[in-house]
Amino acid sequence: MAKIIFYGGKGGVGKTTCSTANSINFAGRGLRTLLVSTDPAHSISDVLGMDIGRSIVRIRENLDGLEIDPEYEAELYIEKIRANMKTILSNVIVEEINSQLDAAMVSPGTHESALFDKISDIILDKFNDYDIIIFDTAPTGHTLRILTLPDLLEGWMGSLAKRRKSIVDMNKMVTRKYDEKDPVLEILERRQQRFGEIKKIFNNTENLRIRFVLNAEKLPIEETKKAIKMLKQFNIPVDTLVINRIMPDDIGAEFWEKKKKQEKEYLEEIEREFKGKEFIKIPMLDTDMNKSTVDILSKYFGD
Ligand SMILES: Nc1ncnc2c1ncn2[C@@H]1O[C@H](COP(=O)(O)OP(=O)(O)OP(=O)(O)O)[C@@H](O)[C@H]1O
Ligand SMILES: [Mg+2]
After folding, report:
1. pTM here?
2. Which residues line ligand 1 (CB under 6 A)?
3. Which runs of E-coded beta strand occur in the chain?
4. 112 touches 153 (CB < 8 A)
5. Spacing, Cα 21 to ligand 2 middle (Å)
6. 84-140 pLDDT tens trace
7. Do the Cβ atoms of 13 and 216 come closer than 8 Å?
8. Architecture per CATH, 3-243
9. Which strand (E) or helix (H) includes residue 270?
10. Which atom of ligand 1 is nearest to the CA of 17?
């Protein structure tokens, strides 16, 4: 049975790089590994230099990949609700609710629920096909927040189902059609059951691991502290931190020359690629950002 690892961390610290590298390592050790990106920027494709789409593709031996497109999943999610509704409700009510669903498309809650549904699908469907499932998350942190949802959603579906059941039972006493199934109740119970299964998987600490990527700098440290505290409130432990981009011990002129040469090539590429744009060039400082260093950088924005 699969272990599930979520990679989280501040924007740009190296989540995609490290989750991909970690997946390659697992696969190299013969573990059947699935790498899943929840980032709309499709960055695994960029790192690996290959197209990875919405369905699972083979990356290399023992390693498969998939990129979730949250926007597309939100559309599917709403479509699914629409389709369910049509089987249950009258046309007039469907018309009315349709416009509310259009509004829901743009609400952040819908994106989170849709993403949660998709992640649940992958975990429940693939739990037995892989040894490890690794999720690379988007910088917004939404993906990690949804880890806290199963409890809430299961309870919510449970209370909706209970309420619906009491209405259905009452109707049955009137109509005396005791065997008739209620489609609403079926949907609610099915969802309650799925959230329950996911909750069971997440609650077993053997299954779920959160790895935080950070750099040895102030802002990523602060963000990591906050995220760990938030997850702790929901009993989700973080036991591994991946500290990325540590400078090598034997750093010397050669290292910097190579970095500088590569930077020069990319600077030329930027100027070529974005020809005609204005460029504001800001130097890297030998310290990280605080009140006085940001003042130094402010001087570069003089028009
Ligand atoms: N150890 C490393 N050495 C050199 N460059 C690195 C290293 N790790 C990451 N990078 C570079 O840093 C940049 C950001 O890395 P990456 O995209 O993995 O971060 P991320 O946390 O996934 O970003 P985002 O929050 O936007 O998803 C990339 O250009 C990547 O090539
Ligand atoms: Mg990324």
Report:
1. 0.85
2. 9, 11-17, 39, 43, 139, 244-245
3. 3-8, 33-37, 57-60, 63-67, 132-136, 208-214, 238-243
4. no
5. 12
6. 777 666 676 667 667 766 766 666 677 777 888 889 899 999 989 999 999 998 876
7. no
8. 3-Layer(aba) Sandwich (3.40)
9. helix 253-273
10. 18
Query: How large is the C-alpha radius of gyration of the chain?
Result: 24
Other CB atoms within 10 A of residue 255 CB: 12
Distance 231 CA to ligand 2 centre (A): 20
* Count of C-beta atoms within a 10 Å radius of residue 270: 13
How far apart, in whole angstroms, are the C-alpha atoms of residue 301 and residue 280?
Answer: 7
What pLDDT does residue 152 have? 74
Judge whether 8 and 137 are in contact, CB under 8 Å: yes
Separation CA 244–CA 11 (nearest Å): 13
Residue 16 Cα to ligand 1 middle (Å)? 7
Number of other CB atoms surrounding residue 169 within 10 Å: 12
> DSSP states of 112-147 as a string?
HHHHHHHHHHHHHHHTTT-SEEEEEPPTTSHHHHGG
Could you give the residue range(s) of every CATH 3.40.50.300 domain in the chain? 3-243
Question: Would you state the structure tokens that stand for residue 110, as one six-digit string?
Answer: 């819908």
Give DSSP secondary structure letters for 42-73: -HHHHHHTS---SS-EEEETTEEEEE--HHHH
